[in-house]
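Comment thread on ticket #2218

A.B. wrote:
> Attaching the input chain for the structure job we discussed in standup.
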Amino acid sequence: MSQDRIKKLLYEGEGISVEFKECRNKLNKTVFESICAFLNRNGGDLLLGVNDKGNITGIAPEAVEQVKKELVTALNNPQKLNPPCYLMPEDWVIEEKRIIRLFVPESSQVHRCNGKIYDRNEDGDFDITSNTNLVTALYIRKQTAYSENRIYPYVSMKDLRPDLVSKARKLAVNQRPGHPWASMSDMELLQSAQLFQRDYQSGKEGFTLAAVLLLGDDQVILSVLPHHRTDALLRRENIDRYDDRDDIRTNLIESYDRLMAFVAKHLPDKFFLEKDQRISLRDHIFREVAANILIHREFLNPYPAKFIIETHRLFAENSNKPHGQGLINPANFSPFPKNPVIARFFKEIGLADELGSGVRNLFKYCRHYSGGGVPVLVEEDIFKCIVPLTPEATEQVTEQVTEQVTEQVTEQVTEQVTEQVTEQVEKSEKIIEFCKSSKSTSEIMDFLGLKHREHFRATILQPLLEQGLLKPTIPDKPTSSKQKYYSTKEKK
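C.D. wrote:
> Ran it. Output below, let me know if you need it in another format.
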């Protein structure tokens, strides 16, 4: 996220995925309702220190850190937000004033704030707790969109491994003394982790695919997903086949352990000091790669995950539900959880970091490990992660991947862009004709049959204003609620 992107959000104003809250010295009481609504709908950006009109009011500099701390603490408190959510607020200085930006991804779960379910539309957040139809529709949408929520009513506790549940409990307590899981029974722990759910469409309830993959017996996992496997290969001498192999067909926790053992067997751990303390560069880098191909995979896709160590690089790939296409830039990307329940479970037991921080750590430590090399991440139907192991590998890896992405995407993008440009021109012509007399944003959107205000302002209205084809009636107050627009043809 850049300052330009934040300024664009301020200009475009509030919408289904953007919300402003004034916050001078403490959090606005409705902040968590908006976060809950974003999680339940399509996600979005929350800007604190900004009023409803998009004017920056700012947060008191001495209060910024306390506001961030209170925000993170409350998001991790199931009494406030259930299930809890792990988000990282960012503070920015815009127009010499401090604001906080919080990106909230869409969740695979239905969240409650203070016991109430909130959803979102163009007008803001609304409580749907008592509306049975809307709540049911929300649950159905979540279970349909995220395969990790698929329910298997005939899977029982005896199909899950109690030793893995105990291991997860111990790891969570080691990460955070006093962790709630410490005093829970096995069933309470599984329910707390959202691994036991109810299908509001069929009325069935039971353990989910996430529960089976995380804690299931191997036979149960392969019965549910016969294609489930992660193929770890070493290719240095015999590049046509392999020098060593681990065909991993087990639960995700032990899959992670086996991938890290494979790395330890075949890759060196270079000496590195961080703040006068030695850390394992190898573990910091490849735990991110291993965790990524395990927790951000589309498990219903039979494409096997691959983890291949070669002479100059490590190459990993897994099936994916992409959110965007092409190379990932760590300085300007919005993290999106593919399996939020599994990702949260991995974070609780210390096998993964906060959403988004893993990518930044990968880039940070890879430079030291490979002598200046940087990893390459490609977001497509098959997600690819390439970590150079030597300096000379970086340029070659980047060139190869860029060429592959270009060849695969160019034809598709060209066709899409042509269609979009044609549609855009037609809409622009209609708007210019319609606005011979001044019209408001809502009137123009109604005329075109559009619903998403944010998309309309960014992709249709703003270009017309920049080209001088439309002009505002109140140019000094671009965000005025009384703002209208007129065609310049009318004024000539």
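A.B. wrote:
> Thanks. Noting for the ticket: Confidence is low (pLDDT under 50) at residues 393-398.
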